[in-house]
Amino acid sequence: MLAALKRLWHKLGSPRWFFALTSFWVSLLGWAALLFLLVGAVWGLAFAPADYQQGNSFRIMYVHVPAAMLAQSLYIGMGVAGFIGLVWRMKLTDVFIAASLPLGMVVTALALFSGSVWGRPTWGSWWEWDGRTVSTLVLFFLYVGIYALREAIADMQLRARASALLAMVGTVNIPIIKYSVEWWNTLHQPASFGLTQKPAMPSEMWLPLLVMVLGFYALAGFVVLTRMRAEILHREGSARWVGEWIAGRRAI
Predict the structure, then answer these.
(1) CB contact set of 221 (below 8 Å; sequence gap of 6+)
(2) pLDDT at 188
């Protein structure tokens, strides 16, 4: 068992093996994202009942909550990848960071924007210096900072190490985002549902939210894997297997 896990661990560091493995998963995640997002959006926007306090303005939740969750998850993934890259020198970890950065910036910006749209009718203002809002803004700056750092460093190995280190250090902000509603007097409400607690809303509201969360994560998997595969082809362009794969594609 241990030997099998060790072989799998070494295979995960092989760009060629990873490229072949993910061919099926890209298609599966793409179709899953389309299905979940379509069902979740129609269910949440058209059929979920209006909130008894916020009315229909609460429906922005079906975009805001999945975007905020995904923004944090992607950064955690980058931090873990950074640690693995620094310790075990796996090339694919830097590929993952490069592939995740643009999506991370987009969904964090979407979380901030949708939160402002939601906050206007709920709080009476577009922006409040709230603990969770500010820590999410810091998350956005961390994404942008890593992106700028990668653009500024030409050497590939130095760029990989520097972005891995910054990704690792920035993960200290994730617990601040999560627990800010408990640590400080904040306008944000606690989580509406979780793995270990009963949902704080009726099933007619949280079920479409769950479907939207699944859709966002499936879309993230599709986007990140697609970008990783493109990055692998770019970096391994001189490898024999890449030439064989391109020739096979042209022959289809």
Answers:
(1) 25, 29, 33
(2) 67
